[in-house]
Protein backbone atom coordinates (compact mmCIF):
# COMPACT_ATOMS: atom_id res chain seq x y z
CA UNK A 1 0.00 0.00 0.00
CA UNK A 2 1.34 3.40 -0.96
CA UNK A 3 1.60 6.25 1.48
CA UNK A 4 -1.67 8.18 1.31
CA UNK A 5 -0.88 11.08 3.59
CA UNK A 6 -2.04 14.65 3.15
CA UNK A 7 1.47 15.69 2.16
CA UNK A 8 1.48 16.73 -1.50
CA UNK A 9 5.15 15.88 -1.91
CA UNK A 10 5.38 13.65 -5.03
CA UNK A 11 8.24 11.45 -3.86
CA UNK A 12 6.39 10.42 -0.70
CA UNK A 13 3.84 8.46 -2.75
CA UNK A 14 6.48 6.40 -4.54
CA UNK A 15 7.57 4.29 -1.57
CA UNK A 16 5.65 1.93 0.73
CA UNK A 17 4.17 3.57 3.79
CA UNK A 18 5.98 1.18 6.12
CA UNK A 19 9.40 2.35 4.81
CA UNK A 20 9.29 6.15 4.47
CA UNK A 21 13.03 6.45 5.18
CA UNK A 22 14.14 4.18 2.28
CA UNK A 23 14.19 7.04 -0.20
CA UNK A 24 17.54 8.30 1.11
CA UNK A 25 18.99 4.77 1.11
CA UNK A 26 18.13 4.33 -2.57
CA UNK A 27 19.80 7.61 -3.48
CA UNK A 28 22.93 6.75 -1.49
CA UNK A 29 23.11 3.31 -3.07
CA UNK A 30 22.85 4.75 -6.60
CA UNK A 31 25.43 7.45 -5.88
CA UNK A 32 27.79 4.92 -4.34
CA UNK A 33 27.46 2.66 -7.37
CA UNK A 34 28.20 5.53 -9.76
CA UNK A 35 31.29 6.54 -7.80
CA UNK A 36 32.46 2.93 -7.62
CA UNK A 37 32.01 2.53 -11.38
CA UNK A 38 33.97 5.72 -12.09
CA UNK A 39 36.84 4.68 -9.83
CA UNK A 40 36.90 1.15 -11.27
CA UNK A 41 36.94 2.57 -14.79
CA UNK A 42 39.94 4.74 -13.96
CA UNK A 43 41.78 1.84 -12.41
CA UNK A 44 41.17 -0.33 -15.44
CA UNK A 45 42.49 2.43 -17.62
CA UNK A 46 45.60 3.08 -15.56
CA UNK A 47 46.51 -0.57 -14.94
CA UNK A 48 46.26 -1.71 -18.56
CA UNK A 49 49.54 -2.03 -20.37
CA UNK A 50 50.04 0.50 -23.12
CA UNK A 51 50.19 -1.06 -26.55
CA UNK A 52 52.79 -0.12 -29.11
CA UNK A 53 50.33 1.13 -31.72
CA UNK A 54 51.72 4.03 -33.71
CA UNK A 55 49.28 6.84 -34.37
CA UNK A 56 51.69 9.00 -36.37
CA UNK A 57 50.38 9.89 -39.86
CA UNK A 58 47.39 7.61 -39.42
CA UNK A 59 45.46 9.44 -42.16
CA UNK A 60 48.05 8.51 -44.80
CA UNK A 61 48.74 4.99 -43.55
CA UNK A 62 45.11 3.90 -43.03
CA UNK A 63 44.53 2.80 -46.64
CA UNK A 64 47.59 0.51 -46.63
CA UNK A 65 46.98 -1.03 -43.20
CA UNK A 66 45.66 -4.57 -42.87
CA UNK A 67 42.28 -5.15 -41.19
CA UNK A 68 44.07 -6.57 -38.12
CA UNK A 69 46.18 -3.43 -37.77
CA UNK A 70 43.11 -1.23 -38.19
CA UNK A 71 41.33 -3.22 -35.50
CA UNK A 72 44.31 -2.88 -33.15
CA UNK A 73 44.43 0.88 -33.68
CA UNK A 74 40.67 1.16 -33.10
CA UNK A 75 40.84 -0.86 -29.87
CA UNK A 76 43.83 1.16 -28.67
CA UNK A 77 41.95 4.40 -29.28
CA UNK A 78 38.89 3.04 -27.45
CA UNK A 79 41.08 2.26 -24.43
CA UNK A 80 42.63 5.73 -24.53
CA UNK A 81 39.18 7.34 -24.59
CA UNK A 82 38.19 5.59 -21.35
CA UNK A 83 40.51 7.93 -19.49
CA UNK A 84 40.54 11.67 -19.13
CA UNK A 85 40.05 13.29 -22.52
CA UNK A 86 41.94 16.37 -21.40
CA UNK A 87 45.05 14.23 -21.04
CA UNK A 88 44.98 13.11 -24.70
CA UNK A 89 47.71 14.46 -26.94
CA UNK A 90 46.90 16.31 -30.16
CA UNK A 91 48.02 13.29 -32.18
CA UNK A 92 45.68 10.99 -30.24
CA UNK A 93 42.78 13.41 -30.72
CA UNK A 94 43.45 13.61 -34.47
CA UNK A 95 43.66 9.83 -34.74
CA UNK A 96 40.43 9.39 -32.76
CA UNK A 97 38.63 11.90 -34.97
CA UNK A 98 39.95 10.27 -38.15
CA UNK A 99 38.89 6.77 -37.12
CA UNK A 100 35.42 8.01 -36.18
CA UNK A 101 34.77 10.50 -39.00
CA UNK A 102 37.61 10.15 -41.53
CA UNK A 103 37.34 9.67 -45.28
CA UNK A 104 37.56 5.88 -45.27
CA UNK A 105 35.10 3.05 -45.70
CA UNK A 106 31.63 4.39 -46.45
CA UNK A 107 32.92 7.98 -46.27
CA UNK A 108 35.48 7.53 -49.05
CA UNK A 109 34.92 10.28 -51.62
CA UNK A 110 33.40 9.05 -54.86
CA UNK A 111 35.46 11.44 -56.95
CA UNK A 112 39.21 11.77 -56.86
CA UNK A 113 41.43 14.74 -57.69
CA UNK A 114 41.20 15.71 -61.38
CA UNK A 115 37.87 13.95 -61.85
CA UNK A 116 36.12 17.10 -63.13
CA UNK A 117 38.65 17.58 -65.93
CA UNK A 118 38.22 13.97 -67.07
CA UNK A 119 34.44 14.40 -67.14
CA UNK A 120 34.70 17.59 -69.21
CA UNK A 121 37.18 15.95 -71.60
CA UNK A 122 34.94 12.88 -71.95
CA UNK A 123 31.84 14.96 -72.67
CA UNK A 124 33.78 17.01 -75.25
CA UNK A 125 35.02 13.82 -76.92
CA UNK A 126 31.52 12.34 -77.11
CA UNK A 127 30.14 15.59 -78.60
CA UNK A 128 32.97 15.73 -81.17
CA UNK A 129 32.47 12.10 -82.23
CA UNK A 130 28.69 12.44 -82.48
CA UNK A 131 28.97 15.70 -84.47
CA UNK A 132 31.45 14.04 -86.84
CA UNK A 133 29.12 11.07 -87.35
CA UNK A 134 26.16 13.36 -88.00
CA UNK A 135 28.02 15.41 -90.64
CA UNK A 136 29.42 12.27 -92.28
CA UNK A 137 25.92 10.77 -92.47
CA UNK A 138 24.46 13.97 -93.93
CA UNK A 139 27.29 14.31 -96.45
CA UNK A 140 26.98 10.72 -97.63
CA UNK A 141 23.19 10.67 -97.53
CA UNK A 142 20.70 11.23 -100.34
CA UNK A 143 19.44 14.58 -101.61
CA UNK A 144 16.70 16.37 -99.74
CA UNK A 145 13.29 14.80 -100.36
CA UNK A 146 11.21 16.55 -103.03
CA UNK A 147 8.52 17.28 -100.46
CA UNK A 148 10.79 19.80 -98.75
CA UNK A 149 11.14 22.09 -101.79
CA UNK A 150 9.47 25.52 -101.85
CA UNK A 151 7.47 24.62 -104.96
CA UNK A 152 5.92 21.61 -103.18
CA UNK A 153 4.93 23.75 -100.19
CA UNK A 154 3.19 26.33 -102.41
CA UNK A 155 1.23 23.64 -104.27
CA UNK A 156 0.23 22.01 -100.95
CA UNK A 157 -1.03 25.35 -99.61
CA UNK A 158 -3.11 25.94 -102.81
CA UNK A 159 -4.57 22.43 -102.62
CA UNK A 160 -5.56 22.81 -98.95
CA UNK A 161 -7.26 26.16 -99.69
CA UNK A 162 -9.18 24.57 -102.56
CA UNK A 163 -10.36 21.77 -100.26
CA UNK A 164 -11.41 24.34 -97.58
CA UNK A 165 -9.13 22.70 -95.00
CA UNK A 166 -9.39 24.07 -91.42
CA UNK A 167 -11.87 26.84 -92.26
CA UNK A 168 -12.26 28.31 -88.75
CA UNK A 169 -8.74 29.36 -87.76
CA UNK A 170 -6.45 27.70 -90.27
CA UNK A 171 -5.32 28.04 -93.84
CA UNK A 172 -8.82 28.37 -95.37
CA UNK A 173 -10.11 30.95 -92.88
CA UNK A 174 -10.83 34.56 -93.86
CA UNK A 175 -7.86 36.87 -93.33
CA UNK A 176 -5.33 34.02 -92.88
CA UNK A 177 -1.82 35.50 -92.71
CA UNK A 178 0.27 32.43 -91.85
CA UNK A 179 3.04 30.94 -93.96
CA UNK A 180 0.96 27.96 -95.07
CA UNK A 181 2.33 24.43 -95.29
Automatic annotation (TrEMBL):
InterPro entries: Cyt_c_oxidase_su4_fam, Cyt_c_oxidase_su4_sf. Residues 160-181 are annotated as: Disordered. One of its GO terms (biological process) is mitochondrial electron transport, cytochrome c to oxygen. Residues 160-172 have a biased composition (Polar residues). It is found in: Mitochondrion inner membrane. GO terms for molecular function: oxidoreductase activity. The keyword Transmembrane applies. GO terms for cellular component: mitochondrial inner membrane; respiratory chain complex IV. Gene3D superfamilies: Cytochrome c oxidase subunit IV. It holds the Pfam family COX4. It comes from the Eukaryota. It is a single-pass membrane protein. SUPFAM superfamilies: Mitochondrial cytochrome c oxidase subunit IV (SSF81406). Keywords: Membrane, Mitochondrion, Mitochondrion inner membrane, Oxidoreductase, Transit peptide, Transmembrane, Transmembrane helix. Its main location: mitochondrion. PANTHER family: CYTOCHROME C OXIDASE SUBUNIT 4, CYTOCHROME C OXIDASE SUBUNIT IV. Belongs to the cytochrome c oxidase IV family. This is Cytochrome c oxidase subunit iv.
